[in-house]
């Protein structure tokens, strides 16, 4: 039990002290390994071996980054940026809600996940400074769009998330349908809507003076250049739609991203001679995020192989009794610690399902209540975790000018506005379903 608690605490403290997140996760992983009785060499070996669990995700992000760079090359994103500038300049609340809406599309309609952020957000940074917009509000808006849709909507990444819950429960003796899983997650997901509204209309409503001198030197510059819709943009849209269809049919992000990239070159939207540059920029954009995910997977492997998570759940369940309210609270609390360390809801759901289902069956929880517990516990690892792509992505865009801190400006605000209501609403769902 203490292995999980102390190692997550190590990661959290180091992150809050502004230590690089990769170093913080490695330190947490080595702490867990040493506490479990491994030698330093054995802990490192187990860390490296576990990194392969997220190799598919890491490659997906890099290819999606290259696809996003290719899309940006055509100038089509400038059309959206210019529209936002013309329609929403001076309207901070509407700007934040629009950003949350655009981010939501990245999970279902155009499944590029976080790859759109470094393309869309940096051109808007000067506008944010001119409007005296609090970037923490932008971070919460982006994280909402990266999480809430897959939690509540059974499409795109939502299908993958709900299927992971259903399959994890089925393999441990509890059956439910995809529709039931989606319905079970509506209540926890509603908590995120509450958190977004609080962030937009209360917490980050007031003007915030920009950091540094860019406000004086660049705020009055023209925010966007006129771009007319042309033939290349038409082919770009075709490539995006094709990538979406292939991803849905094959259930594979890598194949979908490759399809989009190949079509961009085949349609001559991007010249062949730009191929090396496009891929290099994609790697530069998403490489750090991909590597964080790899290291977090290695950390998760240490927790799993040393039975640290199992020990934590067993230690907690031994004193739970038969009160469903208390059981649900403790299981969510355990899930919060586990997923905060690993930072991946998709990666931790199978682990949590194996541990939660027997406890929930014995306590008399319904399958939908169990799904709500597992899904909420998994989702808690995405908002507020330094290792989560839902926080790394917003930081990648908002820190393009070096004025946004990953921990204090992204992780802490998203933890407060999303993990707290997720926990409360997930707790309610587990009790009433």
UniProtKB/TrEMBL annotation:
Localization annotation: Cell membrane
Superkingdom field: Bacteria
InterPro entries documented for this protein: AA_Transporter-Related (IPR052576), Na/H_Antiport_NhaC-like_C (IPR018461), Na_H_antiport_N (IPR032813)
Swiss-Prot/TrEMBL keywords: Cell membrane, Membrane, Transmembrane, Transmembrane helix
Bilayer topology annotation: Multi-pass membrane protein
Domain Putative Na+/H+ antiporter N-terminal, residue spans: 4-87
Keyword DNA damage: no
Keyword Manganese carried by entry: no
Main location: membrane
Domain Na+/H+ antiporter NhaC-like C-terminal: 142-427
Segments crossing the lipid bilayer: 21-41, 61-85, 97-121, 141-161, 182-204, 237-270, 282-302, 325-343, 355-380, 415-432
Name used for this protein in its record: Sodium:proton antiporter
